[in-house]
Amino acid sequence: MSTLVASFPSLASELSRGLRAAGRGPLADQVDAAAITRVTFDDAVNAGYIYLQPSRELNVVETNIMDVRHGETLEVETPYWTNIDADNFGRLMGIQILAPGDMKDELRKHADV
User: Fold this and answer.
1) What is the value of pTM for the model shown?
2) Is-contact 79 14, C-beta < 8 A?
C-alpha cells in the first residue's frame, strides 16, 4: 500500500495547504500520512477517486454502537476540482478529483484494473 504523498505528491501538497488555510489542520495532518487502499478512474465522466486507509482504528463503542457513516464532503481549492470525504469520526476516507487535467494519466496508472 503506497502513501498519498509518494503516489500523488503535488495533489497531497495542494490538499494539505488548502485544508490548513481553511482551518482544517487535523484533516491536513491526515493527508500528510494517508495510505492509499485503492484508486479508480472513470473515463466516461473524467473523474477519479482515491480511497484511503482511515487514520485510526475505531474502538468497540464507535464500531458497534455509533457505527461509521459519511460525515462530510469538503471542496478543497486545488488546481483540480477536488472534494474530500471524511467519516462521522473526522477520519479522511477518500479524495474525489472531478477535473484531473494533467493528473489523469497518474490516476489511470494507479487505478484498479
Assistant:
1) 0.87
2) yes
